[in-house]
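Hmm, what's this shape?
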Amino acid sequence: MNNENETISAIATANGIGSIAIIRISGDKALDIAKTLSKKDNFSPRYATLSNIYNENDELIDEVIIIYFEAPHSFTAEHVVEIQCHGGFIVAQSILKATLACGSRLATAGEFSKRAFFNGRIDLSEAEAIAQLIEAKSEDAAKILASQMKGSLKEYIEQIRDEIIHILAYSEVTIDYAEEDLPQDLITQIEEKLELLKKSLNSTLLASKAREGLMQGFRVAIVGKPNVGKSSLLNSLLNYNRAIVSDIAGTTRDTIEEQVKIGTHLIRIVDTAGIREANDEIEKIGIERSIEAIEASDIVIALFDSSRKEDFEDEQIISLISTHAIDKKVIYVKNKIDLEEKFKDSNLDFDLQINSKDNVDSLIEALKDIMDVTNSSDEIMLISQRQISAVQNTLNNIDEAFMPLESQELEIFSFHLNEAVKEMASITRPFENDEMLDKMFGSFCLGK
């Protein structure tokens, strides 16, 4: 690891005004820096010490709490000092500046976690769980990530890896005694073990892809022809007037995005432009973005106007959803039920009937039920595209291993299983890939 002996420091809390800000220092000089800034000689590990903090000019900065974590009993496994000061940009920055003047350097994004990884305190799966927990979009996601911080994914990966190595051992031993072939019953047993591994990995992969919205935050697109009440529905879901509501068709000519919490989930709702035959270039762009919003969403709310007779534009909506909302949850909603009903398309089964200006509780419950069901699986979950790619590559190598096993080309069989082992290991602790590690930890928060 580059510059591994340097002492680093950074502000570990978000910018802005708050009750407390935390400055974190890690490295061999961490305790000496704390002693210099506080003018105190003794700090008991893991005890909170009330102290003044002074800058390099001996000027008082703040009265703070200092906590010292003695190596290796810290997050980074190095000497770590955390200084808790009064919240605010100026105070925290002044203390950070003082630590730099005493011999530390500013930490790069994710460098504390990177040191924890290199010092054996965490593996990559736990590091990624820490990073994503900060940005968790639901309580269910936070529970999954907390479990992974404790090593649940690591245990699963190690189990799969050990089973592949166990199978690989049969092949390697036989290669050493080339004059002997594997008995047919042993080949059958290996094939059965590989099929079980495939089943387990496929199940994990499918469950993870289906629950991506749980990690990233569910995206909900509201679609319909102009003037069916999409903007009114958005305003009702947000409980304030975010979108302009007008009787003029085409008032919303671009997508509008807002976040709202439903149940235990933080979701992003997209109010799309009315989908119809576009009369000008701006409307065409708005409609194209609406289609993009449908394709990028997890849930689609298809809104229809109960007070207007169904027409060609309604048929367009149905056609676009069938084309662009494949494998997505679609809620068909009849709106404006307080008015005389004229929409009577017998080919369309509505899930809900509402008045978007009055009460949308039934729609909120429907959204909540869909999102809650998404988390009903007990499967281990992969939480990043990197992890998903590694499992997919493992499955590909297992598939490639069947043919050489059958023909007893054991060197090729072993090659594919060794590649599978490397792919699984990359989820927790890759062999050597400094560039990948730099990119991954570089996406972390500063101070983490």
